[in-house]
Amino acid sequence: xxxxxxxxxxxxxxxxxxxxxxxxxxxxxxxxxxxxxxxxxxxxxxxxxxxxxxxxxxxxxxxxxxxxxxxxxxxxxxxxxxxxxxxxxxxxxxxxxxxxxxxxxxxxxxxxxxxxxxxxxxxxxxxxxxxxxxxxxxxxxxxxxxxxxxxxxxxxxxxxxxxxxxxxxxxxxxxxxxxxxxxxxxxxxxxxxxxxxxxxxxxxxxxxxxxxxxxxxxxxxxxxxxxxxxxxxxxxxxxxxxxxxxxxxxxxxxxxxxxxxxxxxxxxxxxxxxxxxxxxxxxxxxxxxxxxxxxxxxxxxxxxxxxxxxxxxxxxxxxxxxxxxxxxxxxxxxxxxxxxxxxxxxxxxxxxxxxxxxxxxxxxxxxxxxxxxxxxxxxx
Length: 380
Prior knowledge:
9 strands
């Protein structure tokens, strides 16, 4: 990027943001509950169990990699139609399972492993603690809670209950059709359902952030018309580089940029594979399609750069790893063995001419900026 690419970027704390990383998407509860991983243990211990040998993240590994904050997900869905992923038979069942995800994050906080960041003050104090520390081994990892898929919100006014529970980000769909809209993984491009407008209005009234990830193009176009609050894409890549419904087209990337949103670039190699895949029929084995070393952090950097070129600056793109939700180590770029290797992206970008201020934006500063602006103040 040119030397003026970071003009106007305000740093929330005085220490360099490149000393920390913020991951815009980590479905942590899925790994702990559905995959039965003890994420409080060192990664070598977790990987010693054969079925967990490809695990990319645990809390100690996040500390080692300087990942101070992650947007972690509550992800439970209702099974509908041709959804390629399993789900529950009713919204009530999905809601009950989601309470288990929430309880997992709460117990991590009560035991001192993590800290749920509910307000802007929480976030900024947490980041100050991390950037001031010479050793982060014993620090809690900051968690911002998000709902992925929307099926666990049973009515529009139910969003306020989730807000009171600490959730600050909601996406309306996961794979397939949700209670609120059409999503990716269906092979269709339908839009919002009738009650989605009421949900979006309730989200806006409570200052809930809208994550456009996994919703269809038409759903996102309609959502951006109806929703006036803060928008983001927690884990998305660029359709101009990789075809397929799971990627964002340029007109939606521009819409997010115009709303001062941020796009978290995913480490999922299905989303980095240049020929693209049929997202309504996701192949069962990516190794039958391409080798692990075929996709590198240079491919990730291409998507980062594409967003920067659309924006004209480095203020609207960040990391959205989909960490361990994208297939773990086997679904990550060749240089990424664990989440601690996300830091290597800064070296790739630096070699392309990105300056220190740009790297600070991309690795942490952009998420920090919009989350600090969107989260409530303690006095609110």
